[in-house]
Design goal:
The complex is a heterodimer. By secondary structure, chain A is mostly helical. Chain A has two domains: 177 residues, no CATH class; 69 residues, no CATH class. Helices cover 70% and strands 3% of the residues of chain A. In chain A, helix 3 packs antiparallel against helix 7 and helix 9 packs across helix 10. By secondary structure, chain B is of the alpha/beta class. In chain B, the strands form two sheets. Chain B has a six-stranded mixed sheet, sandwiched between helices. Chain B has a three-stranded antiparallel sheet with strand order 2-1-4. In chain B, helix 4 crosses helix 5 and helix 5 packs across helix 6. Chain B is globular, with a radius of gyration of 21 Å. Classes of the chains: A mainly alpha, B alpha/beta. At the A-B interface, helix 1, helix 8, helix 9 and helix 10 of A face strand 5, helix 3, helix 4 and helix 5 of B. The complex binds adenosine-5'-triphosphate and magnesium ion. Magnesium ion (MG) binds next to helix 1 of chain B. Adenosine-5'-triphosphate binds next to helix 1 of chain B.
Chain lengths: 263, 280
């Protein structure tokens, strides 16, 4: 399945620069860049289209794409995956143009429903920024195995409990998905004359309920497996992370870029 | 010292009328290898879960190496669950096998050594081309997961190894090597299984369970050659025993090699007889 094969790929590509960087360096750099992007001034489209306000974002996208090229990640995949956020950000930002002060550009219903220039600029900003941010995150996850990200987060003092929940999610998502597939298969193989939509909806409910109970009971059993191997509320971890010269250089590069965007 | 002591243990699952264990009494000496056999729902898994304090008896008591403290029990007993998905919860195989030793506070090099040794013991060593340690448990085959589950307990270096249905998904070769592994394991082993042949090869003593009770226990040769008893609890004698019964031979070996030995002797006798009689 995808995450597994991707993890394998990540491991195979350990020779690549970006893959080999310390996960903490990558995390800090990319999150820093992300924060800078969020805080930066939105580009200006109205009343005057000003292309230069888009340059910082283009610059970041180019930077991310070149990093992706170095680490032999398919650019198309990166660009396409980052697209998933667009519908969400558009829906969330849809109403922004109607609020916000600033001069009215379009008057839809006699002054009661208007589009403001500030609002439109914010709308464009939210969409562009969310795209760039998601691209940062996706680049991070495509070059770093999930367990390493967790470890780096732990080093950054993210609460232990939260991280454990994350790593269990990663582990058990597949088992739950497998159970759903199995139950669906079991259902379909016992239903030779298909169709009837109502019946599908009903059984979907049953499956969801059973899945909930199964997940709950499995949770109990896993917990007992953990305590029987000496678990006392803390996940032990192996292997230290080392920050080398290249990690510091990488981080400095990102700090510079972030500063450029903010100014 | 007794490795395991079970005194009149009663257990009922929450919200259930029927007792899953009804007054279990039995003992395991240190270094002994015991099989618990019984049909589905006999209560084998329920009993095993008592051995490291996951379930607590409603009545009666359990002692492991003389102690009944849960922490003590868990440091002595390594339990491999029937379903490997309950046992494996880390993102990678390596981390899962290292989980126990790390919790024991061992130094890192020692942990790595133990993990490698345990993985090797279950036939998943690094030099076979695949980096097993880096694989994600949820993307292994069921049998491979079962082997990893066994490795997670081996790496802890426990004194008592408890396995629930260890052979149910293993291929013949792996089953064979698990047999070997258990035979050379110097400590106490308790296996719950339907795999009668496996029980016969590995264990010297057999405990038969039925409907939450122990109906019979004794040396493997006696219990496993008793076809009637096994049938009455929904099991079957080993193939080798059934062959000898069918042929009406008095001796009833339960292990494959013992059976072969006897047949070889009988064959020899026939050849000798032929040699003495009038030749053609
Ligand atoms: N979580 C549970 N809640 C309620 N009843 C249970 C639970 N687990 C098991 N039982 C019941 O307890 C009895 C003993 O179950 P147990 O799992 O110990 O059997 P087993 O001998 O291990 O069988 P198998 O060979 O199928 O693994 C069964 O009748 C079963 O239905
Ligand atoms: Mg069982």
């Amino acid at each position: 399945m995808s995450i597994e094969s991707e993890n394998m790929k990540k491991r195979e590509m350990t020779g690549n620069l970006i893959h080999r960087l310390d996960p903490r360096a990558k995390l800090l750099s990319l999150v820093g860049l992300l924060v800078a992007v969020v805080l930066s001034n939105p580009p200006s489209v109205i009343p005057q289209f000003n292309p230069s306000t888009f340059f910082p974002y283009l610059f970041v996208i180019l930077l991310l794409l070149s990093l992706a090229t170095i680490s032999k990640i398919s650019l198309i995949t990166l660009l396409k995956r980052s697209m998933v956020v667009i519908p969400f950000s558009i829906v969330v930002a849809l109403f922004l143009p109607f609020f916000g002060n600033g001069d009215v550009v379009v008057d839809l219903v006699f002054g009661s429903l208007t589009l403001s220039s500030h609002g439109i600029n914010t709308f464009v900003g939210v969409v562009v920024k969310s795209y760039v941010c998601v691209m940062c995150v996706i680049l991070l996850t495509m070059t770093t195995p999930f367990p390493s990200i967790i470890k780096a987060l732990g080093w950054l003092r993210v609460p232990e409990t939260y991280l454990q929940v994350l790593s269990f999610l990663y582990r058990y998502m597949f088992i739950l998905m497998e159970e759903v597939t199995n139950m669906k298969r079991a259902r379909d193989s016992r239903n030779p004359n298909r169709v009837r939509r109502m019946w599908y909806i009903k059984t979907a409910g049953l499956i969801a309920g059973t899945l909930f109970i199964r997940a709950y009971e499995r949770g109990e059993r896993v917990y007992s497996a953990m305590v029987s191997r000496g678990y006392e509320g803390r996940m032990p971890s192996l292997g230290r992370m080392k920050m080398g010269m290249k990690d510091w250089i990488f981080m400095c590069m990102f700090i510079t870029v972030s500063a450029y965007i903010l100014v | 010292m007794r490795a395991i002591e079970v005194n009149d243990v009663w257990y009922r699952y929450p919200n259930q009328k029927e007792y899953a264990l009804k007054g279990i009494n039995f003992e395991v000496e240190e270094g002994e290898k015991v099989a618990i056999i019984g049909a589905n729902g006999a209560g084998k898994s329920t009993l095993l879960l008592h051995f490291n304090g996951i379930l607590k008896p409603e009545r009666g008591e359990i002692k492991i190496m003389g102690g009944s403290d849960v922490k003590w029990m868990r440091s002595k007993v390594g339990l491999v669950f029937q379903n490997p998905d309950d046992q494996l919860f880390c993102p990678t195989v390596f981390e899962d096998v290292a989980f126990g030793p790390l919790n024991m506070g061992l130094p890192e090099e020692e942990v790595v050594k133990r993990v490698e040794k345990a993985l090797k013991a279950v036939g998943l060593s690094e030099n076979s081309g695949v980096k097993w340690g880096d694989r994600a448990p949820h993307h292994l085959s069921y049998g491979e997961r079962q082997r990893v589950a066994i490795a997670t307990v081996l790496s802890m270096g426990v004194d008592i190894l408890i396995l629930d249905e260890p052979t149910s998904n293993l291929d013949p070769k792996m089953r064979e090597s698990l047999m070997e592994l258990l035979l050379t394991f110097p400590h106490t082993v308790v296996v719950a299984t339907h795999d009668i042949e496996f029980a016969a090869e590995v264990c010297e003593r057999i405990v038969v369970m039925d409907k939450g009770e122990i109906v019979e226990e004794g040396v493997a040769e006696r219990i496993l050659s008793d076809g009637e008893l096994l049938k009455s609890v929904g099991l079957k004698a080993p193939t080798i025993v059934r062959i000898f019964e069918e042929l009406g031979i008095d001796e009833k070996p339960v292990r494959f090699h013992d059976g072969v030995e006897i047949l070889r002797r009988l064959k020899q006798i026939r050849i000798n007889q032929r040699g003495e009689g009038p030749t053609m």
